[in-house]
Design goal:
With 195 residues, the protein is mainly alpha-helical. 48% of the residues lie in helices and 10% in strands. It has a two-stranded antiparallel ribbon with strand order 1-2. α6 runs parallel beside α7. The protein starts with a helix and ends in a 10-residue tail after the last helix. The relative contact order is 0.15.
Length: 195
């Protein structure tokens, strides 16, 4: 029952806040376009709920020659591939803003495990142990507010499993509030993965 409420809550919250994020998206799109050649948006194949694939949207934060399907934590020197505007977007998490469109389309929820890359079989296998692949993926999640890039895959999957067990309105609300604090403080952002 909560999953229906969750979907309705996602749509209402995204639409109500549209007057705030639409102008911001327009400004950021202009900055991305002006800062380096290439498309404004970056699309990538990701795992959704029940391991179904979808295309996730982001602002392009890397130069056009950067590998497209390699998780950042596996890149040798991610800093060299990130544009100056992209660095700001990633540190502030504003590169994720176009995913509000994914939420309206039903690909994502506001809260849930972050969608894994199509080739991140290790993360998907770990999540399967906890039943975390069966819940809607999200713009933010328990793993993101508990360490984000600094967490190894096993720990991320364990947090995703905890979310799957505790999923509910108050838990989602708590994660959203922790996300706001995390974005403002830029905690857990680490290019190149766990140190």
């Amino acid at each position: 029952m909560y999953l229906y409420i969750k979907r309705a809550w996602d749509i209402v919250l995204v639409l109500v806040t549209a007057p705030l994020w639409l102008p911001l998206m327009a400004v950021l799109a202009a900055l991305v376009k002006a800062s380096s050649p290439g498309a404004v948006f970056f699309k990538q194949k990701r795992y959704g709920k029940n391991r179904r694939f979808f295309m996730i949207y982001k602002f392009r934060s890397m130069y056009t020659g950067a590998p497209k399907d390699v998780p950042t934590h596996l890149l040798q020197n991610p800093e060299a591939l990130i544009t100056p505007v992209g660095r700001f977007l990633r540190k502030s998490s504003l590169d994720e803003l176009p995913q509000l469109i994914n939420i309206l389309k039903g690909d994502l929820s506001l809260v849930g495990p972050r969608p894994a890359l199509w080739n991140q079989d290790d993360l998907i296998a770990e999540r399967e142990k906890y039943g975390a692949n069966a819940v809607p993926v999200g713009l933010t999640g328990l793993a993101q507010v508990s360490g984000r890039d600094e967490l190894p895959i096993e720990k991320k999957a364990a947090y995703d499993g905890e979310y799957a067990r505790r999923i509910g309105f108050l838990f989602d609300l708590r994660i959203l509030l922790r996300t706001v604090f995390g974005v403002v403080s830029r905690s857990g952002v680490s290019e190149g993965g766990p140190k």
